[in-house]
Amino acid sequence: MNDTLFGKIIRREIPATIVYEDDDVLGFKDIAPQAPVHVLFIPKNELIPTLDDLQPEQAHLIGKLALAAAEYARREGFAENGYRVVMNCREDAGQTVFHIHLHLLAGAPLGHFGAG
Ligand code: AMP
Questions:
Q1: Whether residue 65 has its Cβ less than 6 Å from ligand 1
Q2: N or C: less crowded end of the chain, CB within 10 Å?
Q3: Which of 4, 5, 37, when mutated, tests ligand 1's pocket best, judged by the most ligand atoms within 8 Å of its CB?
Q4: Contact predicate 29/39, CB 8 Å
Q5: Distance 31 CA to ligand 1 centre (A)
Q6: What pTM, to 2 d.p., does this model score?
Q7: Is 101 known to be catalytic?
Q8: How far apart are CA 37 and CA 109, in angstroms?
Q9: Mind listing the domains of the chain with CATH numbers?
Q10: From CA 115, how far away is CA 38, in angstroms rounded?
Q11: 60: number of Cβ within 10 Å
Q12: Which of 38, 60, 101, 103 is catalytic?
């Protein structure tokens, strides 16, 4: 269970800057931020490698990640200016850690989403 880099963060075996926690979700700062605010939200109690592995009975966990990100954005005061959430799935999206996670990016205009 949770036997990934992020599992080690959940178990406090490696350090992370934890900024959000509830019964189901942990949020911590990305070590290589791609925006002024870059936080990762992960499920604490289930190891789901990618979005493609998500089972219907686990769907509520994705909602919990989204709600945690939205709550954090309101709490930190950037909800009104806006933010982006991203989930990378496997190689073509550049996924590097196989414990499902939601990226929250904010703190500056992020540009429009595009392939180029
Ligand atoms: P992804 O590329 O979607 O799999 O995202 C994995 C993210 O984890 C990347 O943005 C990395 O910068 C981030 N990351 C890797 N190791 C750590 C760590 N020890 N603490 C915090 N973030 C990390």
A1: no
A2: C
A3: 5
A4: yes
A5: 6
A6: 0.96
A7: yes
A8: 11
A9: 5-106 (3.30.428.10)
A10: 21
A11: 10
A12: 101
Which residue matches tokens 């414990």?
Answer: 99
Phi and psi at 103, nearest 5°, equal -85, 135
Which residue's entry shows tokens 């963060």?
9
96 Cβ below 6 A of ligand 1: yes
Work out the pLDDT band at 11, boundaries 50, 70, 90. very high
Strand order in the sheet with 18-21: 18-21, 25-29, 37-43, 102-106, 83-86
Cβ proximity of 77 and 32 under 8 Å: no
Residue type at 71?
E
Place of tokens 């350090």: 15
Whether residue 4 has pLDDT greater than 80? yes
Q: What is the largest CA-CA distance in the chain?
A: 39
Q: Is 92 in the pocket of ligand 1 (CB under 6 A)?
A: no
Q: How far apart are CA 35 and CA 13, in angstroms?
A: 26
